[in-house]
Structures are given as C-alpha cells and as structure tokens.
Amino acid sequence: MTEPLLTVRGVKTYYGNIIALKGVDLDVHEGEIVTMIGANGAGKSTLMMTIFGAPQAREGRIVYAGTDITRMPTHMIARMRIAQSPEGRRIFPRMTVLENLQMGAAIDEFAHFDEDLNQVFSLFPRLSERAHQRGGTLSGGEQQMLAIARALMSRPKMLLLDEPSLGLAPLVVKQIFDAIRELNRSQGMTVFLVEQNAFHALKLAHRGYVMVNGLITMSGTGKELLASEEVRAAYLEGGAH
To answer: Does the UniProt entry include the keyword Transport (predicted)?
Structure first.
C-alpha cells in the first residue's frame, strides 16, 4: 500500500500541564473518508487543531504528503493544500457569503475562483441564493455549508471537518453528509472527519477510529465499528436516527 497522505505517530498535546492527547497514532490514505468518533471532551477537536499546528504537539510526529508538519506554523500548513472547517463554524459574520468564500480562495490566490465558486454553489445551492447576505444572518445549517464551502475554495487535497453536524436538524445533517460523500466520490477528495454523530459518520466513512480520554482505543472499517457491540453500547444506543 502507498504511503498515507497523513500520518500521526505518538502525538501528545498539552494545555499547560494537562495532557489532552496521550500518544495518538493514526493514518489517512489518499481518497479515503476517515472518521474519528468519541464522547465530548475525548480529545477529538484537540487532535484536529494539533494537525493544523495550534496547539503544536509536544511529542510525536505529524507527516502530511511526505512533509513533517509537526512544528510548522498554521499559515504554512494551510498552504499545503490541507483545509479545515473548524468546530463552531467560525465564519466571518459581518462578511457576505461571497466575501467569506473569497477569504477561502485567497490561499490559492484566486487562480480558479469562478470555477470553484460554481462548484461550491452546485454542491450547496442554498449558498448561491444567499450570496450577498451576511454570514451572521444565515441559519446554523447554512453557516455550516458556508464553512465547508470556504474550506473547499482553497482547493484542498485533504479536508478536515470538525463536528459538521453539531446542533443541526436531521435533514440538514443529511445534506451535509451527502455533500461530503459526493466530494469524495466525484473528486477523490480525502476527508478526515471528527463527529459525535457516530451512526452517520461510520455509515459515511471507509475507516474509523474511536477516541477515549486522549487515546485511540479501537479502529476498523466503518462497517466493522458499526457492528461492534462496544461501539453500539457506547455511541449508538438511541443515536441511529
């Protein structure tokens, strides 16, 4: 098998003296959708932020596309065709939808702006209708679509998604997950997804990891983890909607 696009080895991350990640190992291969599930506070978002350089890992190595990015500043990582849609969306609320998308395209120096704009508008038609509306006036679901679309405007090779379904209605969650599936299917985009909605995430993913208290405790294909008694008891009881 070819070298993974992303390799995380022995990564430990601290907040002050508190250890949030206790030695994380994982791989994401090109063209895969990989998900990480776990309870709130397990360290999933910390891992996402550590991959992106803020906070930096105190121990271990993170290699992306053959380059060690463990000590690299965030703005340099963003230029390596890796994009993040962070937890809580973090769009620019006073800017219009179009202006938010322009911010995403700036990393690629607007080289393919019109083409990419058409692509994200076909993926999320609602954004096309709201193009001149301020980001802060959009619904939660529309803001999540905008956060993903803004990340896509940088033409990433790998997309990091942190809790894309958080707080959204089931119908909107389905739209978001359908869009992720379509990006992977039509463009071969590599996606690393952190998600509390274990049922949807594992149905979507080729492979998955389970994180508990800063450690990965299980891994397998999406199907294997969905079928696991342990996973079902901890994350899926009552959650399969």
So the answer is: yes
pLDDT-derived band of residue 110, with 50, 70 and 90 as boundaries? confident
Determine the length of the chain. Answer: 241
Please give the model's pTM, rounded to 2 decimal places: 0.92
List the CATH number of the domain containing 70: 3.40.50.300
Is residue 175 within 8 Å of residue 63, measured between CB atoms? no
Please give the Cα distance from 195 to 104 (Å, whole number).
23
The parent domain of residue 224 ranges over 1-79+195-241
Alpha-carbon dihedral angle through residues 62, 68, 69, 71, given to the nearest 10 degrees: 100
What are 65's two structure tokens? 């596309």
Q: How far apart are CA 217 and CA 36, in angstroms?
A: 11
Q: How many CB atoms lie within 10 A of CB 206?
A: 16
Name the β-bridge partners of 9. Answer: 61
Task: Give the chain's domain count.
Answer: 1
